[in-house]
């Protein structure tokens, strides 16, 4: 067994490991997207609650606080007493299909009734 035989084996092992590495990278990126969507949804809920408390459109405020990629599945629910719940779909890393995974946040400003 020579040195060239071992070099070929290492190349085969590297090629076999690349799909696993790519899958792990995509999974990590998907988790980062989910966290970012949750953070943006919380910000949109605060904006919607501020708009609700001053008599403006909570839906418009929430939509203006998120990027276009989250606006498609955005849901805004007015809970009363200045409370607003905003829910958005987590975007997929590798496709433009709608995601079944949602994140939501609730914000309240003013006095609770």
Tell me what you see in this structure.
The protein has 113 residues and is of the alpha+beta class. It has one domain. Helices cover 55% and strands 18% of the residues. The protein is built from 3 helices and 3 strands. The protein has helices at residues 3-53, 58-64, 68-71; strands at residues 75-80, 83-89, 102-108. Strand 1 (75-80) and strand 2 (83-89) form a beta hairpin. Helix 1 runs antiparallel to helix 2. The model has no long low-confidence stretch (mean pLDDT 86).
What is the count of structural domains? 1
* Shape category: rod-shaped
Biggest sheet overview: 3 strands, antiparallel
Uncertain runs with pLDDT below 50, 5 residues or more? none
The strand order across the widest sheet is 1-2-3
Mean pLDDT: 86
Regarding quaternary structure, what we see is single chain
- Structure classification: alpha+beta
Number of strands: 3
Q: Beta-strand level of the residues, as a percent range?
A: 15-25%
């Amino acid at each position: 067994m020579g040195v060239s035989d071992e070099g070929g084996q290492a190349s085969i092992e590297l090629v076999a490991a690349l799909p696993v590495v790519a899958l792990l990278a995509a999974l990590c990126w998907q988790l980062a997207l989910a966290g970012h969507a949750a953070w943006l949804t919380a910000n949109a809920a605060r904006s919607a609650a501020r708009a609700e408390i001053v008599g403006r459109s909570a839906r418009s405020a929430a939509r203006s606080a998120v990027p276009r990629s989250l606006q498609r599945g955005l849901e805004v629910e007015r809970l009363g007493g200045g409370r607003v719940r905003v829910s958005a779909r987590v975007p997929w890393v590798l496709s433009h299909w709608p995601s079944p995974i949602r994140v939501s946040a609730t914000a309240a400003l003013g006095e609770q009734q």
